[in-house]
Amino acid sequence: MFKSLDSQIKKYYYDIERHFLRKKSFHVGLILSIILILTVIMLVSVQIDSAFIALYTSIFIALIGLNALFYYKGNLFPGYHISMYATAFGLYLIAIGLILEIRHPSIFTILFLFYGVLAIYQHSKVSTLNNLLLFLSGSIIVLGFPNMFSANGLVSITAYVYSFMLIFVIILSISSFILTKQKERFYWSVAVIKERELRMIKTVFDLENTLTDRQFDYASYYDNLDSFTSALADEIGVENVFSERINILRELSISNEDAIMDNTSGYSTGDLEELKQLELNKYTKLPYVAFKAAQYTSLDHEESVRTTNLDSMNKSFDNYKDTTAVKIVSFSVLITLLRINKPYSKAISIDTIESLFEKDEFAKLFDQSVLKFFKQNKDMFKKLTEIDNTGGESQ
């Protein structure tokens, strides 16, 4: 029923990483725009050839556009690292060109300026590439053009500059490694929480499907949604721009994307992917969101936070802090509650309970020794929970 937990958590990790990288791309593009303006002003003031100014400006605009495109149309970058790699190589090419063109020791600091811009991504591979390009670019300038660092015929200070740069890059590498690892641990923790939460919600859906005959009328959802948007548009006096999208969404629930793309103009694959986020079907995103929203209780005025029933759902019956006695008692209480009739739920047979525990998503919530004891003594549990004619199985 579930994918491998590791692969699912990795998917959530990359989704989270991609979400934040899009925001960081926006910041990088904004900063590059400011640097572009200042660079053009500087180049004009030192009377650099207009052809070089046009070349540098073109590269800057291309990098800004690449980051903006990733921010606004992230679906165009399935391998989203390409925008960051291109930005890294492009910035260091600009830096080397400016240093060789102006040939003044002060312009050497532009390497560290671009290093700081790329550090905004806080991505492990880009950080490694950033450190490598800083070292290589600095080495090319310092060793290839040593006279650039000589002053008034004095002894060249190339060795000192190179030593300083080497130490600086090592320190930066260690610092960036620590920061990116902390960020990755945070993303991974969020991904684990998300996987656990979604797995528990899916478990609830499966339980409902197994234990009840209730079926949701998914088809009527699109009719009701269309009626609602039409009434809303009439009420505020605007054209209903949602009808076409709702019809496409309806088709997406019964057809594949390729067939819809052939019959629909003005929509890209990314647009259809965004529309599918609103699809109401079992195990799609919207039912999960609706279920989670329904679990929230009223605001806790003392803590100024909202609590959710999912907090208790995510608790395991196999907490490492609990003693064996606590695990046995909690398991016994659960079996008893499942075996008696309640106003909101009918009693469940021992065989049904046992079949549920055969599924991995349920079994992993309990201590395995307790489950083993239950399976070996199923008849005893059955007799103990046959309370009367209104609880347990029918007599």
Summarize the structure in short:
The chain is mainly α and 395 residues long. The chain is built from 17 helices and two strands.
Report on this model:
This protein has 17 helices and 2 strands. The protein has about 400 residues and is an all-alpha fold. It has 3 domains: about 5-190, no CATH class; about 215-280, no CATH class; about 325-385, no CATH class. The protein has a two-stranded antiparallel sheet. A hairpin with a 4-residue loop joins strand 1 (about 295-300) and strand 2.
What are its keywords?
3 domains; flat; 395 residues; two-stranded antiparallel sheet; 17 helices; disordered C terminus; mainly alpha; 69% helix
Shape: flat
Q: Which secondary-structure class do the elements indicate? A: mainly alpha
For the largest sheet, list the strands in their spatial order: 1-2
Q: What gap, in angstroms, lies between the N and C termini?
A: 35 Å
